[in-house]
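ok here's Nitroreductase domain-containing protein, seq below lol
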Amino acid sequence: MTPELFRRLVTQASHAPSVHNVQPARWRLDGDTAWLFEDRQVRLPAADPTGHDAAMSLGAALEGFAMAASLEGLHVSIGRADDDATSDLRPVARLTFEPGGVEDPLTAHVAARQSWRGDFPTPSSEDRQAAASLASPDCIPVTGPHTIRAIAQLSDMASFGFMLQDAFRAELLSWMRLRRRHPDWARDGLNADAMRLGLLEKLGAGLVMGRGFRPLLHYRLAEKLLSEVDRTAGAAAIVVFHRPQGEDPFDSGRAFYRAWLRIEGAGFGAAVLAALADDPESAKTLAAMVELPEGRRIVSAFRIGRRPQDAAFARARRLLDELIV
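and the structure came out like this:
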């Protein structure tokens, strides 16, 4: 494993999704062994108090690394590492390499995958049929418009429940980059382009999420201003992603990334509806709506649809010198 090859693999791994785009994965090359660490300094104590979503993000990053290695004819063997409670860098996995890796077909969709938080064009019956074909052992696509709207309303209710928490809103706002002059606009977090915010939305987001929230709540305006019911209801499908109960979220994160790439491969853009899984009551309601198989748990959900032609935007990603430690 040369330093040059390692840098290429880390670059590809950095394209993996992560909660709030905080990018917690850090990498180190030690001879022919690579190490994956979690940077605990970017933990989300309000949004992710148990570290579940951080673990999923790390699993997705490792899956991206392994897929990139397959392009180089390498097979990656993974050994989980013990936790180091005394360091900001928590060792997560030890990676060794063997020749004979077969190119993973999902690598073809890594470069195009981006979260699409904007509106979707009105879906056609062909779009809904294509979305239905995404059914798999861990994905349940919902394509009926009435059920999609019901899920959209459920998602909004769950999301607003979290927004009522001052610490949650403050933390989310700290990772939002609403102005291009923000020093981390192109580095991490959720910038206004990624969130598809218009000029007025950029100007108002800080107020709605910040000091204006409580007055707007008093006048019953906060929920309306933050609602995404219509945007979600306009999707071609809601894809409910589920995994075995009790599964390590690191492993769930690996499968999550692969599910997203399959969505991308079918020609759809996607945005994550995390609150549907994070709120226990909403997850329970959604499980009943989609007749979730016994022994499974809802890990996440996507709203998917065809992206408009102007959907592309630059990724916000940390520099390699930050990721390699």
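fwiw The longest helix spans residues 52-71. kinda neat tbh
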